[in-house]
Amino acid sequence: MILSANLSQAEGDFAWSGTLELSDPAAFQRIRIDDPITVQMGEELFEMIVDNKMLERDGVGMPRLTVSVISPTARFTSPRATPADHSWVFPMLARAAAAEAINETIEWELVDWLIPAGRLEFHDATPLDVVKTIAEAAGGRIESTPEGRLRVRHRFPVAVPAWATAPVDHVLTDEADNLSCRESHTLRTRVNKVLVRGYLPTGSTGFLTAEVDGRIDGPNEGRTTFYGGDVVHLMVHVGDDVTLLDPLVSTGVVWLDGQEETTITEDLVFSLSTTATLSKPALAIDSELWFGLNLGPLTLETDQRTVTARFAGVAIVRVTYRSMMQHWIAWVPETVAGHDAFPFQVRFAGTTGVRLGSGEIFCQRGDGAFRGADISDPLLATDDAKRSRGRAEIDAGEALQEVSLTCLHRPGFMPGQLVEVHDALMGRSWRSKITSVSHSAQGNKLTTSLELLRHVESSV
Predict the structure, then answer these.
(1) Which of 86, 210, 337, 371 could covalently link to 193 via disulfide, CB atoms 3.0 to 4.6 Å apart?
(2) Co-location of 299 and 259 in the same domain
(3) Are 137 and 384 in contact (CB under 8 A)?
(4) pLDDT number for residue 358
(5) Separation CA 112–CA 384 (nearest Å)
(6) Residue whose C-alpha is closest to residue 268's, from 301, 298, 302
(7) What pTM did the predictor assign?
(8) Are 277 and 271 in contact (CB under 8 A)?
(9) Which domain holds residue 219?
């Protein structure tokens, strides 16, 4: 016989968990860790497994027999799952990759998007770590259903401004349901605009190089020394996040003579890492030749210079890639200040700015006056995924008030659901999102405690 039971799940928890207090020592002794167990709370059934057991006895009195239970989703994480390396060589849909990681279907209630090849790579991670990383990239949360299946949903299944008109999952009234209510006010940082990018910034302030064209087959024919009256051909490489300004010259003139696609071959060194850096921005990598240890296929990241290998190690690879070069020409007079031998300088400079249309989008609500921190995640390869993540951050930045409510037990409560509460004492009704559910049974008395987020009008 069960004397008491408690089950709970908060937003982002991967499982329901709780305790059962038993009265029968014989039944307690028969229970083993990881045994499946079905817990009935009122009209709702929860499929669980035994997580732990505890016996407390004082003298010769009746012992207190407690069994800890948890959803079967616990088998996807430590200590029941052994961390390992996970990687996907080919492009994968987010939902399919997550399901493959745990080798089960998932109740997927989040945007699904295609993740490019080489982006999904995890070291020493459990299957649950993989699913969590994929879900959180697009603003999702992982949880367990009462039946013990893994669930992935948006952090805010209904956008906060739509709460007032959206269908609700539950209606609670003071007359039939509510037992107690406690409100608290927490100052939150307002956010209604975020920049979401699908790559990790390199931390650089832009790429720009200028050099004499010393190629043997180039227009200078390999020359690097020049005389007064000569024409000097220059190679300028500009990153796509840089806007080139008009160059300055100490003497003579300089002008742009077009641009061309060039082929560059260079050796990259990997030092116990999966990344190396090209000397110039690349349009594409045409070939790779490993001298010894092969770290796997190379992926060119969106910054056009970072190259990622499948594995980490100490290795050298010769890569041939295409790069876009600007061709500039400088002319100097035969003499300067009466000298036919003199130095001269050409100065190239550029400005950097926000790079849109190449892996970045702005997500905005209203006037966009409150910009949050930029979001960077290489898994966000589509605009739909970026918008999903951006909305999650903006919804979290709305004016939300925390409310704790205890009511008579009813089945079907889950984090993320929308609840309408009729508050007779305050003479009003309001709507909120469930962030935590806790069921408690003491004999025949069943109650449910909810943690809620209620939308309130912002003063800013």
Answers:
(1) 371
(2) yes
(3) no
(4) 44
(5) 8
(6) 298
(7) 0.68
(8) no
(9) 208-352
pLDDT digits (tens, 9 = 90+) for 362-419: 999 999 889 998 998 989 989 999 999 999 999 999 989 999 999 999 899 999 999 9
Question: What would the pLDDT profile of 284-329 be if each residue is shown by its tens digit?
Answer: 999 999 999 999 999 888 778 889 888 888 999 999 999 999 999 9
Q: What is the number of other CB atoms lying within 10 angstroms of the CB of residue 48?
A: 27
Measured CA to CA, the distance from residue 298 to residue 295 in angstroms comes to 8
Provide φ and ψ at 97, rounded to 5°: -65, -40
> CB neighbours (10 Å) of residue 412?
11
In a domain, 161, yes or no: no
Assess contact for 386 and 363: CB atoms under 8 A: yes
Give the gyration radius of the chain's Cα atoms: 31
Token pair 């990259």: residue: 268
Contact (CB, 8 A) for 303 and 358: no
| C-alpha pair distances (Å), 7 with each of 2, 211, 393, 398, 405 | 13, 68, 29, 30, 16
| Eight-state DSSP code of residue 303 | T
Cis amide leading into 79 (omega within 30): yes
Q: What are 124-144's pLDDT values in tens digits?
A: 899 999 999 999 999 999 999
- The pLDDT tens digits of the residues spanning 169-224 come to 999 988 878 788 888 766 678 899 999 988 766 555 578 899 999 889 889 998 88
E-strand ranges in 213-252 read 231-238, 242-244, 248-249
Count of the separate structural domains present in the chain? 4
Domain identity same for 339 and 449? no
CA–chain centroid gap for 77, Å, is 19
Structure-token pair, residue 73: 């989703």
